[in-house]
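Exercise: predict the structure of this protein bound to pyridoxal-5'-phosphate.
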Amino acid sequence: MALARQVGIPRMAFRLAAVYLDYNATTPVDPRVLDAMLPFFTARFGNAASAHAVGVAARRAVEDAREKVAAAIGATAGQIVFTSGATESDNLAIKGAALAAHPCRTRVVTVATEHKAVLDASKSLARFGIDTRVVGVDRDGLPSLDELADTIDDDTAVVSVMAANNETGVIAPIAAIADLAHNRGALMHCDATQAVGKIPFDVRELGVDLASFSAHKMYGPQGMGALYIKAGDRSRPGAAGKALTAQAPPPIRIR
Ligand SMILES: Cc1ncc(COP(=O)(O)O)c(C=O)c1O
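Solution:
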């Protein structure tokens, strides 16, 4: 309790925090992750965009991290864009794919039990004339493949379905849903935030075009996420002025 008082946590909250059971919301940072990160706050503090040795060392560390993240999901480093978390990845994926789509593709298809980041990002596209169709789930909490097949049409730009649900834990048949999307020429985005690091998630096996995930669901820090972009190409220039640390994504194209 003295510790609780010291760090300003109310007594009741401290008692509750002692039995923390909400690792789907966030996990503590693993000590090994912390050890790996700490030098970059002090001794190895370079700006990864600087040309001098300290900057180059920081850039190498970013690129090493990108390779590790890519390997974890069966991608290549050039297909990984670092973001501030899965919320940003979801927004970038859905808005990017929908707005870059052919003008005749004016629809996003998603599922009622998606995370707010996906639902809000999809619905925000209404002002650009892009409508969102939200498919329901069955008694097990899974989206019906039949309903998805009926809903995804030639007007669909992107289909967004999560791999594992953050509240119910159900695991969706992503490969089958990706097939449905591709059969209609749409892109498949998967919010894999609750899957990566917990169950096998291989972007090639599942056939997804875009996948979002987040460090703080798997013992990494908050404020750090990634977006997998199948069509990624590291040789393209990044965002003007900030190409190296938070590489800007290449344009997303409908095949
Ligand atoms: C399925 C899912 N998507 C997206 C998010 C948002 O993640 P972040 O906190 O990294 O923005 C979460 C976390 O709550 C989540 O569980």
